[in-house]
Design brief:
about 0% strand, about 130 residues
Length: about 130
């Protein structure tokens, strides 16, 4: 078994960060337009991209691996419910941290909270997969 991956995972990770930022920003803008602001709204805007990013990451990794001629499944750090639970905790912590930084509750704060959540989750999952190999 080769230790070198058949493609660069950084492309996939960067794409998930961009998607997370856009979804978080749009969610927070929508929440603000209906008057739902605060830490709860920011945490929800940060959490909503979590399941979608996992799905995007898996689809892109499978497509790139298939293109490179690799077979097998990609390593998973945790089961789906555990990933969602970790995402919820990280989203609340990111929202609370951005609230303490007094960034407000607008479009940019939603995007930053979602991107920060995605970045922390990527780091946690990468460390979990690396520690098992």
């Amino acid at each position: 078994m080769s230790s070198n991956p058949p493609f660069s995972i950084s492309i996939i990770v960067f794409a998930t960060y961009v998607v997370a930022f856009l979804i978080g920003a749009l969610c927070m803008a929508a929440f603000g337009s209906i008057g739902f602001i605060g830490v709860a709204a920011l945490a929800l805007a940060a959490f909503i991209p979590v399941p979608l990013n996992g799905m995007i990451r898996q689809m892109m990794a499978k497509a790139l691996a298939r293109t490179a001629g690799a077979s097998g499944s990609s390593p998973m750090a945790f089961s789906y419910p555990v990933r969602i639970a970790i995402g919820a905790v990280v989203a609340v912590l990111a929202a609370y941290g951005l609230t303490l930084a007094q960034l407000g509750f607008g479009f940019l704060a939603g995007g930053l909270a979602a991107a920060l959540t995605s970045m922390v989750l990527s780091l946690v999952f990468a460390l979990a997969v690396a520690s098992r190999s």
